[in-house]
User: Fold Amine oxidase domain-containing protein from Aspergillus pseudoustus.
Amino acid sequence: MYRYLCLILCSLITLSASSELPVCIVGAGASGLSAAHSLEALGRSTVIFEEKDAVGGNAQNYYENGLPYYLGPLLVNNGSHPETMKIANAVNVTTSTYTPVSSWLFNWTTGETWVSPPDEPSPEFLREYQRYTAHWERIFARFARGAYTENMPDELTVSTSEWFAGQNYPQLQARFTRNIISWGYGDVDELPIPSPNQFYTLSIFNPPSLARPQLTIDFHEVFERYARQLVDSTIHLGSKIESIGLELTPSERTVFSAVQTTNYFSSAIRLNNTPRLSLFRIATESPTSSPPIAGEPVYIEGRFNTSDLSCLYSVGRPDQSPEEVAAVTLQSLSRINRDPSSQEADDWEPAAPVDPSDVKAFRQHRYYFPHFDQTALQGGWFDKFNNLQGGNRTYYTSGLNRVEHVEFVIVSAREVVEAHFSS
Ligand SMILES: Cc1cc2nc3c(=O)[nH]c(=O)nc-3n(C[C@H](O)[C@H](O)[C@H](O)COP(=O)(O)OP(=O)(O)OC[C@H]3O[C@@H](n4cnc5c(N)ncnc54)[C@H](O)[C@@H]3O)c2cc1C
Assistant:
């Protein structure tokens, strides 16, 4: 009966032109909640169907002794997240600072660990950043300030490493690569350059952002309160939409089959021998190359001084199951789980095993970072995607509209509502 009701609602909304009917939204993540809020501001009523038992989408945490261990988004600041911060302020959720006391690189197969180069931007980095700023304004700015409404020129359809190979930004390339790896944005030899170019839009590498301490926020709490306090929509939790009563059209099939995602995992795991408040990044063959994608951990953060639980992120091949990724991650952690500061190069303290009982939370983000590859970009993917909006009275908004990032998905949802519903 309930499923029947969902289908009726969706069919009516997708097929009727009447503005009396509620707009049906699938998913109560940042995209769905922002779309609902914007629609409601235009006087439309909304109903949201969410498969999970909680709102927030990716924004879920594991809590222990009142502390949040982030299994989804965590980083935020006024520079990179102005619209997100307006919501956080409106619902009274505050930020915290995170300052790791030590930073390490690790070899995920041998467990060898060494001190990471300092994070402070070097004078060479700042000079490159200045040159890059002018370059970005020239080639990318028009794509960055709004949804992608036109196709990319050839220069922007190449991979990140190919694009950098044609420029002279070695320091910047190393920073980009480091973030691409930690954030599960895939292999730099395959990832087209537009997504990393958005780091600039978000002020991620601008000197003030690099200087300030990292700010984190409990995004789950933000979206929980957003849904309760500011969004009027009726939200049906635990309601998976299997079909909206419409067949995918051939053009929808073509466009969506070109979408790539990352098999990204987040977890909270006890590492009892690594120093607290320490940060570990995967080492790669060179500062500008990606590691092989094999299910290994790429980024590990001991978040609290009072706890030996770490938040960590692993990347699997598309065909790797959560069980396989968990096994590879635990093997790798069992080689790293020691205090590297007390180690002499020729006198390795043995690492302590990490086993399944140390895993407090492990979450797969199977559809993380929807984006399109170089071939799709070269084939004019954006026009095809934009042409789908409104067909069968169905609209799409997610990280795909720009880049997987809370700020972008909030802004993209508003743009879709503004473009298609405001009149
Ligand atoms: C580990 C991790 C760390 C991140 N860190 C950051 C960060 O520090 N800062 C930042 O800005 N961004 C970060 N992000 C990105 C950010 O989380 C996403 O961009 C954002 O959450 C996407 O929101 P969304 O609503 O588009 O998608 P989602 O959050 O995936 O929400 C989609 C919702 O739709 C539901 N759904 C899907 N299909 C159906 C269906 N058929 N029926 C019913 N419901 C359905 C899903 O259950 C889900 O709840 C991170 C993401 C991850 C995974």
